[in-house]
Amino acid sequence: MPSNPEPPIDTLPDPPELASLRARVAALEKREAEHVRSEQVQTALYRIAEAATATSACCGSARCKLATAESFASSVTFPRVG
Predict the structure, then answer these.
(1) Percentage helix, strand, coil, to 5, in the chain?
(2) Tens of pLDDT, residue by residue, the chain (82 residues)
(3) Would residue 81 count as lying in a domain?
(4) How far apart are CA 20 and CA 67, in angstroms?
(5) The model's pTM
(6) Which of 16, 52, 67, 79 makes the best surface tag, with the fewest CB within 10 Å?
């Protein structure tokens, strides 16, 4: 009795809905990347606000403001654009 074996899965044609599913996955991955980027920018903005608040709470001298700005600049890593 000869049997008709199924072809390997990787040789089967793609079902018609697979292209739309792949497009949806790509769109979701893009949206997730944008969300991550937004979170990074928001974190940087909060740190900028904290540094500005710390600067305004100090004695107000130019030396103090410069020290605060240098400290902030050395601690911040801004996300790459593009």
Answers:
(1) 70, 0, 30
(2) 556 677 666 666 678 888 889 999 999 999 999 999 999 999 999 988 888 777 666 665 666 656 656 666 666 565 565 5
(3) no
(4) 55
(5) 0.51
(6) 16
